[in-house]
Amino acid sequence: MRNLSILSYTGLSLPEGNRNAHGVALDVDSNITYVVSERNLVGGGTDIEIWQMPVDEESIPFATMTPESRPTFDVVRQVVSFTFLAESRQLVLILAGGDIAVLGVDEAPASSEFEIIGSVEPGIKVASWNPDESQVVLVNGNDELLVMSKDFDVQFEGPLRPLDLGEEKHTALGWGSKQTQFHGSLGKAAASSEPSTTGQGGIDKPSPDDDNRPQVSWRGDGAFFVVSSLDSRGPDSSVRRLRFYSSAPPVLLSTSEYTPGLEGVVAWRPSGGLIASTQRFGYEGGGIGRQGRHDVVFFERCGLRRGEFGIRNGFKTETPEINTSTDPWSYKVKELLWNADSSILALWIERTGSDCVQLWTTGNYHWYLKQEIIPSGTSSRYTSVAWHPENALRLICTTTHSVEDRTIMWETCASSSASMDSPGCVAVVDGSSVLLTPFKLQNVPPPMSSFKIDLSPNATPAHLAFSSDSRTLAVVHPNRSIQVWELAIRIGTKGKIACSKLIGESSLTNGHNGTNGLVCPRQIMLSGNSILVLGSDRDGSHDIIYITSITALESTTLKIPCFGRLIGDSYYQDNAGQVYNIKNRELVKLCAFPRFCAYGEAVMMTQGELLAGLDSSGKLVTCAVDSNAGPYVNEVSHSVNSFALANGFLMCTTSAHEIRFIPTDSLFSNLGETDRVSWEVRRVERGSRIVVPIQSAASVVLQLPRGNLETINPRPLVLVSVRGDVEKGDFRKAFLACRKHRIDLHMLVEYAPNIFTDDPAQFVDQIPEVDYLNLFLTGLGQSKRDAQEITTICDRLRAELEQRGLAQYVQSILTAHVVKTPPDVESALKVLHTLRESEPDAVEDAVKYIIFLVDGDQLFNTALGMYDFSLVLMIAQQSQKDPREYLPFLRELRALDTHYQRFRINEYLGKRELALANLKSAGSVRFEEAKKYIEKHQLYSKSIELWKGHSTEYAAILALYGDWLMDRREFSKAGQAFSLAGDSKRAMFAYEKARMWKELFSLALETGVADQDLTDMGLRVAESLVSHARYSEGARVYLDYGRDVPSAVSALTRGNDLSEAFRVVSMHRANHLIEEIINPEALDLCTQLCDDIQEMAEQLARQGLRLIELKDKKALDPDGYFGREEPNLHNVDALTDVSGISQFTKYTKALTGTTAKRSQKSSKKAARKAGRKGTANEEEYILASLVKLNQRLEHMQKEASQLFPNLSRFSDEHQTMGRQLRDDITQFEEQLRTIVEREWPSDPEESGLMEPAPTPALVHKPPKPAVSKEPWRFILTEI
């Protein structure tokens, strides 16, 4: 769907004189163009001149040469080949006389003479260089084929017309031959007739346009070349044949099949698929066909035909008396040329009046004539045509005294998508016809179209453009004529698609010269009633904008330096990216792109003017001109191949096969990363390009590389359309759009929440269909909206529908109940109950519908929980449950009394607390069953709540609860339960087990336990308390209830409460206990504390040394220390024959089902917990251990502070042991503080142990422990 337009034009002239330019050579690296010309001398000789462009009238040639040899055959010009060799930086001339001359361009200022390095005696008819400049093919005057290297060493020499057909000649096996086919009524005789092997009239003659010279063409990779030569088939009979050769080594591979009328032009497609030539029909000795038929034919490398297309030649020249369309022999094809990427085939055609170059492209197996280029200077003839070897869209043509350099561009001619009324029309140029398709009305794939405009007898248009309202189409032709067509595209769905007519025609020419010097019209635009034509002056140094009205009453010309491009209908961009607004036929600066953008679009928005441009590197940039602020220039994306503005979005396709949608509102500010992340992106087929967006249909038409079309409805465009419909109150259109394009229907609520909560009748009025309402409610229920909001909307819609008729909208009402979170199934069943009373005939269908929404078993259970047996039976019947299962069950329930029946129902449904309440309501006769039910399901809390006012049952339940707590070893709670139940004996047993001695003895004294039993109880409890390190409590029980002073003193001493022990001894006058109990146990206490601090010191020393070793290992092998592994190894799925576990087992899947499966995260967690040796995990483990040591130190300091004040009462041994303990604790405290400061330094630079940290810290350190610095000794231990 793309056309070819001229992006830029440059005209370079040679000095005037008796000379003719014949070709160009390009120095691609230096971007220099060399031109070769021949100047006829007065004496009859010829001088060959080389010009380095640009030049002026005073310039002299870059180099000159006078041929020394003359060809032995007739030639039109002396220069056979003129080439620049990039590797050696030489210009190479191959002349018809046989001379081969070279000139180093870097040496030209010193010596401007060519050096003849060799000569071919018979002369040279044709020469062609390999694309990589490594070989050259020559045909000499004796019709011999020569292949030479770049140093002109002969690699191959042979006849031009060998008798052999080649190494890959065809072998006919008879398959598909005429003899094997069915011929119908013609009979078997038709099978014996031989196909014609001669041209029309029974003879073979070359085309009248054939110059009888051989031609050579190379494949793009230089691996093969083809030679076209005129072969004799007898007296006065000859025909063209193509021979295909390999280049390394040069060997004849195949020969083309017999093709009468084949002409001499030949061009091998660089991509290698086809070899193009031309064939004439209808003359005596030519191809068999109608007279005047002229085709471009294609061959494969094997020599077989591969298709063709007809040449169109209907151009009306500027000379009225010459009309080429009436005489098919008034032109000839001089040359065929493929561009570098094989996308364009150029035909150089020589007409009676002037030359032209036709540019052909293909798509969907159809060949389009996209552009015709004619000379823009005073000469009407081209002397050479050549594509740029690297820039596939650059075409260089020469006339006798000028060089015309044009850059071509691909362009889609589509109508503006800014209006909702736009038909989305696209115009495709195909010769003198313009194919048009309004995609809003029809989606017609190319090469077909909805309708076409026939521009004949005019030629292929140079450019065309739609008006802003898409109603008219303007066309400009290469001969500077203008046409304006009214399209008259239909608005409705019936009638003829369009009735186009010509409403205006004019010309920019004035005699032979263009108006105000405008040549090569490149672009046309319609702006209101004005027509803008962009062209160049003759030398291409200035752009000319010709502005006229459709009625051509007045015109204005604007001249701007260098080349540019029109954007939209009223903007112009120069080659530096500066954008001007064309106002009152003047240019006013508006904004600037960062660089020149060949493709541009403009749209007027409420915020201001937005312009988007795409440069040659694929970068998409925008310039937003806000009326209240300066322009905002943003580089939106890169690798973009097409874009469009519509529906409030800038959409673009990229080489990553995505289409992106950028809100245009965000472009009126500087884009940030958060803006880019929020853009909608959609995958598209590889190589897709935007053809046209259809705003009214919220669609985008894409074209794929093979030419077919695809129409998509992107979510952003659909949402914009839906939002607009909702804001206008057109809920039905918005709903149908969401339904069609599978947009979540809850988006309607998103755009108009108040309508659904305040006035749902407006929605129901437009969408009264039950199915549509059900669909909406289901989508709302499945959305991620707030559950309370969903419930509110469902309730409001349900209330509105109930007012309109329960029977009519029962399905939607049921849906509104069950889509809530959680589903309100019980309310939905109540609706069925109500419907059964009012509309019994409609209940069955309603039940079927709700079973479709909700699981049948859930409905059965819910109805059963409502105790409505008729509803239960109805649901069971419609849900296809087995009657043998539910009928006996329902009969059994019906036979029970009400409360017990409900107990059974709730027990069946698993509602145990409600079942227990029903069982209580059944009376005291069911209490024993209730006790069993409570025990079975552990419903103690609920049962206590239910029977709290019934003393007997309440006590029995508490007793059950206490037994259950005893089994769970919750003795404290069990004691409370037994106490409340009045069971003192079991309560005391539970309190004793729980070591709740205060509650125990209080209850024992209240119940009057005997003194001896009380003493025995006190001894048991005290012993249990001491065994659980509750020494102070145990001592008190020994004294108060056990009357055992020695045991109390021992408990206090073991608990390091020596002060209390001395007080008890003094109070009971038992001083002998000091020597018997306190002295030895105090010494044991000191010894134990010394052993503990010694163990802690040894652990601290080991771990301190280990931390130093780990730091050294971390410095030597950080990867191994931190466990950095190759991430790709985690994706390895390897199985081996070895049953053992290798070192790579952690990277592989489990080999057996019993192998534990761990995620990477859990494995690392387990490794940290285990402190894997030699890694950062071990360091984490040791640091955590140091924190625990500090906690033990704090406990040790507290114990020592209680022990030391009493050691002065003991012997010297006790005091010596105390001093030793004090010193050990003090030393350990200093050692621990040193290591802590080293591992948790306040300032890392002061530690002197800085390690390289190329990555963030991988050792997770616990918080730094605070080692006590306050003195914990507050007595004199020196005494």
Automatic annotation (TrEMBL):
Gene3D superfamilies: YVTN repeat-like/Quinoprotein amine dehydrogenase
Location in or out of the cell: Cytoplasm; Nucleus
Residue spans of biased composition, Basic residues class: 1158-1172
Classification via InterPro entries: A-sol_ELP1, Beta-prop_ELP1_1st, Beta-prop_ELP1_2nd, Elp1, HB_ELP1, TPR_ELP1, WD40/YVTN_repeat-like_dom_sf
Residue intervals of the ELP1 alpha-solenoid domain: 715-781, 785-893
Domain ELP1 TPR stretches: 900-1063
A Gene Ontology molecular function term of the record: translation elongation factor activity
Any Gene Ontology CC annotation: elongator holoenzyme complex
Residue intervals of the ELP1 N-terminal second beta-propeller domain: 428-691
Pfam families: A-sol_ELP1, Beta-prop_ELP1_1st, Beta-prop_ELP1_2nd, HB_ELP1, TPR_ELP1
Domain ELP1 first N-terminal beta-propeller span(s) in chain numbering: 1-390
Keywords per UniProt: Cytoplasm, Elongation factor, Nucleus, Protein biosynthesis, tRNA processing
Domain ELP1 three-helical bundle: 1073-1230
Known function: Component of the elongator complex which is required for multiple tRNA modifications, including mcm5U (5-methoxycarbonylmethyl uridine), mcm5s2U (5-methoxycarbonylmethyl-2-thiouridine), and ncm5U (5-carbamoylmethyl uridine). The elongator complex catalyzes formation of carboxymethyluridine in the wobble base at position 34 in tRNAs.
PANTHER family registered for this protein in UniProt: ELONGATOR COMPLEX PROTEIN 1
Protein name, entry field: Elongator complex protein 1
Organism: Rhizoctonia solani 123E
